[in-house]
Amino acid sequence: MITKLSDWHSPSPSSEQSDEPVLRAITQLRAGKAIIVQDAEDRENEADLVALADRVSPDVVNFMITHGRGLVCAPVSREIAERLRLDPMVKGNSDPHRTQFTVSVDAASCRTGISATERARTLRALADLHATAGDFTRPGHVFPLIAHPAGVLGRAGHTEAATDLARLADAPAAGVICEILGQDGNPITGRSVARFAARFGLLRLTIQQLIRYRAAHDSALLGRDLMPDLTNANPLISYSRYMEKALASCI
Ligand SMILES: O=C(CO)[C@H](O)[C@H](O)COP(=O)(O)O
Q1: 3-state helix/strand/coil string of 106-135
Q2: Is 41 helix (H, G, I), strand (E, B) or coil?
Q3: What is the tens place of the pLDDT at every residue in 41-75?
């Protein structure tokens, strides 16, 4: 049975060109750098800074809070959330996109948990595969988000983009994200995102590119007709058809 996304990304000549943005993103993330990930214009239309939690440095967290200026969150897989007993923040989630916020946490060794250094420590602890629930205090200053088990093929959000990219980088399925807000306090869009990326030398990736990458490589492994409907901003409906076929082919 396939358990890791990295098992799925054998090279496929037809998708070589479209693979490039994702492969370059993985290289940057593996080096401990942040990249920019944009969702669809008809979704949140947000640009988030994204990094891997297991190697995030205080400098990267400081960059996020200084120049990103959004909320520093930690997308994690359901497995991590269950092991660390990261319970939902609220009982009835009424967020417009059902972003799966859990109760906030700090690493137990933190003094207050707010500094960039202590937030980086908490983020790394979330990615530590030996960590247990007792290694965290609640509430804290880092906000874990639980990813859809099917990643961006199940939900086209930044949460899933971060955990998919972590898996593709062969890292624990835990990321760090922070929305980019402009001088006026609003999320930046369009050309402002390109300017921000150029100013700081950051790579840009869209969730659509990641969906294409995953769909191409999943299809290469499981059969040619498994592509989700990329015209659909939320690929969940086509993904359920995809999963039916994928599961049938595993039996
Ligand atoms: O709610 C959020 C956490 O600050 C952000 O909008 C962030 O982009 C993650 O949400 P999603 O996975 O829905 O894109």
Answers
A1: EECCCCCCCCHHHHHHHHHHHHCCCCCHHH
A2: coil
A3: 999 999 999 999 999 999 999 999 999 999 999 99
Cβ pair 110, 119 in contact under 8 A: no
CA torsion, points 56, 60, 66, 67, in degrees to nearest 10? -110
Element (H, E) at 37: strand 35-38
Residue closest by Cα to atom 4 of ligand 1 = 71
Is the Cβ atom of 106 under 6 angstroms away from ligand 1? no
pLDDT tens per residue, range 203-240: 999 999 999 999 888 766 655 455 555 555 555 545 55
Domain positions in the chain: 14-250
**Ligand 1 pocket mutation, candidates 145, 148, 176, 210, criterion most atoms within 8 A of CB:** 145
Closest to 179 in 3D by CA, of 39, 20, 76, 40: 39
How many whole angstroms separate alpha carbon 233 and alpha carbon 212?
13
d(CA 31, CA 79): 25
**Among 65, 73, 181, which is best to mutate for testing ligand 1, by the most ligand atoms less than 8 A from CB?**
73
Distances (CA, A) of 34 to 20, 180, 205: 17, 12, 11
ipTM (interface pTM): 0.97
Query: 14-250 in CATH: which number?
Result: 3.90.870.10
